[in-house]
From TrEMBL:
Signal peptide: 1-22
E.C. number(s) listed in UniProt: 3.2.1.17
Name of this chain's protein: lysozyme
Annotated InterPro entries: Invert_lysozyme (IPR008597)
Organism this protein belongs to: Mythimna separata (Oriental armyworm)
Highest classification ranks of the organism: Eukaryota, Metazoa, Ecdysozoa, Arthropoda, Hexapoda
Keyword Isomerase part of the UniProt annotation: no
PROSITE patterns, sorted: LYSOZYME_I, PROKAR_LIPOPROTEIN
Reactions it catalyzes: Hydrolysis of (1->4)-beta-linkages between N-acetylmuramic acid and N-acetyl-D-glucosamine residues in a peptidoglycan and between N-acetyl-D-glucosamine residues in chitodextrins
Cystine bridges: C32-C115, C48-C53, C85-C91
PANTHER family: DESTABILASE-RELATED, INVERTEBRATE-TYPE LYSOZYME 2-RELATED
Keyword Transport among record annotations: no
Primary enzyme class: hydrolase
Length: 150
């Protein structure tokens, strides 16, 4: 996997851009991936249950929306391609990265698209402007996020 790192300054603001295989996502870096994994449970031995798989607890719909990333030399149309990729930490990062490249935005409208926004997108999907404290599981995600980020 090839990483290119860019620091961009625009109107006095600096942002971090990560590039893997040509995909560039502002403020999505190793620390954010670790935090997103932590919030989802980050169980490296998690198989699939109730339609969700792997350390990031990814659904098939999320994988499809991300463009069906796969393990090297795998076929996205193979029946188990989703499960195999989602259960592999590095491949699941490709899924999250592709999803964020497509749906990433400033969910909380604070002027920056950052790891908090990516966490909201992972929880709510592209309609990410809803607060997390409205449900028990949302509050659990918010608490986990605060533990890993602060």
């Amino acid at each position: 996997m090839r990483w290119l790192v860019f620091f961009v300054t625009f109107a006095g603001f600096s942002c971090f851009l990560a590039s893997v295989s040509g995909v560039r996502i502002s403020n999505l870096n190793g620390a954010c991936f670790r935090c997103l994994c932590h919030v989802a449970g980050c169980d490296m031995h998690r198989g699939c249950s109730e339609g969700y798989c792997g350390p990031f607890f990814i659904s098939r719909v999320y994988w499809v929306d991300a463009g069906k990333p796969t393990l090297p030399d795998d076929d996205p149309d193979r029946k188990e391609a989703f499960e195999d990729c989602a259960k592999d930490y590095h491949c699941s990062i490709k899924i999250v990265e592709s999803y964020m490249a497509k749906f990433g935005k400033d969910c909380n409208e604070d002027g920056v698209t950052d790891c908090f926004d990516y966490m909201l997108i992972n929880y709510h999907g592209a309609a990410c402007s809803q607060p997390l404290n409205l449900t028990k599981s949302g509050r659990r995600w918010l608490t986990s996020y605060k533990q890993c980020r602060f």
